[in-house]
Amino acid sequence: MSRAPILATGRKHWLAVGAVSVVCAVAVGGAVLTANIHAADLVQEHLPTSDEVQVLAQAPNALTPTLSLPNQPLPGVVRPVVAHGLLITSDGDTVSAIHPDGTRAWHYERSDAPLCSLGVAWGRVVATYRTGVGCGDVVAIDAQTGQYAHTRSAINSAEVSAISSNDRIGTVSAERAELWRSDLVRTVEYGFVEAKQEPNKQPHEDCVLGSALTRKETFAITETCDGDDQTTWLRLLDATPEDSRAPEVDADVEISSPGVRLVAIGQEAAAVYVPGPQPQIRSFSKTGAELAASNVPASPAAEHPASPFVPATADLPHHMTWFDGERLHLLSPTRLSVERTIEQAIGTGVAVGERLLAPTRDGIAVIDWSTGDIERTIPVDRQGYTGPVYLAMAGTSIVEARGNELVVLSAS
Questions:
Q1: From start to end of 324-396, where are the E strands?
Q2: Which structural domain, as residue segments, surrounds residue 69?
């Protein structure tokens, strides 16, 4: 099969591979080097003064736009990235942490490498940069203090998307996926390995990954193998196998349909969108048993996606949610069955108090998530913007991601 290059060629790059391989031989959990922070600037400016972050306790009566920020889209990132009440933005190769009032807490800038992916876990901002060995230069910065937490450098694909949960963060490409724990040591890698230390560690190295999600100790991927695009395999794996180089597959689920993609994941289950004349969302336990199947309308986002597909998801206290490009599905957290669908939604929402706030064409709807009823709509003037909108909460403000712009809405 044809592969996108993971490594550039040339003597200096093969020397880099050799250095990585030597470290791999002695480092538990995968290649962990020091990222090139000498070509980077990390500057603290107006850091948060409190360890606690105030949040909205109930849905506001009104929302007023008070700040607009540029934010370049990155693969796998659709919702606003928020950590410790700060907006985490990317502009070129600079990552900034910005207070909702517009003052900058800190910023990190690389002069030698473009930004690949961005995510948040463990109260840290994790940014991945592309060097001569792919998107493998990673830095974790404490969101509150603006201080370096950890770095790593290893071989990776040239184009990646971010995948993350509260417990892990990592990247996925069509060739491979990997997860890291809080110290950025790799806990698992799956797929094509460029510089192998030992053969026969990967069970399905020649497959093409279609999607990946993780939560707690569950790591799920979908892929097609042996040139058979009419069959999709769902693999449910341990997120922390004994050897990070040797994935432990708990279940292999064969689905006789092309284009199957992950859309939700629980602690012990995963849900996939299955396209076709009658599309479905089907969920499977970590042992491979089918838990639920729900007929759903066709998804504009998942019908013909690029690989890897990263779904627009968001968690609520009692539901996992997925925006399919036209509507918002609310899934039960254990069985991942579709409990209700918000047809008016134009993106993912946030939980405020005991209500779901979801973006609609008219503003932000206040929804009783137990019934799906819209109780009222808070008007928001988006100045002619008609695309999808994704919400997050930064302190006591609501933040909308509108394409390449972040808009802060102050509550009253």
A1: 328-331, 338-342, 350-352, 355-360, 363-368, 373-379, 390-394
A2: 41-46+55-411
